[in-house]
């Protein structure tokens, strides 16, 4: 058995669930319809976040959260990975260092893991 079958709709649902829970509900994160959710096949990472910094021909740009179907096979792993990428989104929305696990990221990760029961060492 392969495990959880990821779809963009499933990623969106995981995002909205977490966005409505602590501590995310206090972070003023964008609603799911303002994020691009993508399933990728990467085997070198569980997920990634890309910020919305480049506007193409005057079109609105959206941040992207991608989760790897090659690495994420359980609901627990999906939720932990989504939460991880949402911290990157929060930092990006607030102008903090993007893509880095800086001291602020680690502080936020400790809080998220304590609330949601994620393993901080694996997070």
Explain what you see.
With 123 residues, the protein is α+β, with helices and mostly antiparallel strands. The chain has one domain: Zincin-like (2-Layer Sandwich), CATH 3.30.2010. It has three helices and three strands. A three-stranded mixed β-sheet has the order 1-3-2, covered by helices on one side. Helix 1 (8-19) packs across helix 2 (75-93).
CATH topology: Zincin-like
- Quote the average pLDDT: 89
Helix-strand category: alpha+beta
Fraction of residues in helices? 25-40%
Radius of gyration: 14 Å
CATH-scheme architecture = 2-Layer Sandwich
Shape: globular
Distance between the termini: 25 Å
How many DSSP E strands? 3
Q: Bin the strand percentage.
A: 5-15%
Low-confidence stretches: none
Structure annotation, total helices: 3
Strand order of the largest sheet: 1-3-2
Total count of domains:
1
Layout of strands and helices, then pairs:
Elements (H helix, E strand, L loop, with lengths): L7 H12 L15 E6 L6 E4 L12 E6 L6 H19 L9 H14 L7
Parallel strand pairs: 1-3
Antiparallel strand pairs: 2-3
Helix pairs in contact: 1-2, 2-3
């Amino acid at each position: 058995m392969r495990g959880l079958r990821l779809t963009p709709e499933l990623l969106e649902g995981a995002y909205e669930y977490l966005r409505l829970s602590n501590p995310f509900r206090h972070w003023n994160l964008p609603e799911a319809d303002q994020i691009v959710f993508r399933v990728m096949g990467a085997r070198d990472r569980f997920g990634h976040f890309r910020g919305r910094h480049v506007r193409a021909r005057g079109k609105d740009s959206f941040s992207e959260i991608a989760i790897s179907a090659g690495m994420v096979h359980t609901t627990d792993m999906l939720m932990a990975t989504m939460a991880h990428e949402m911290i990157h989104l929060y930092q990006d929305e607030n102008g903090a260092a993007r893509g880095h696990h800086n001291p602020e990221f680690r502080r936020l990760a400790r809080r998220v893991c304590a609330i949601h029961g994620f393993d901080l060492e694996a997070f």
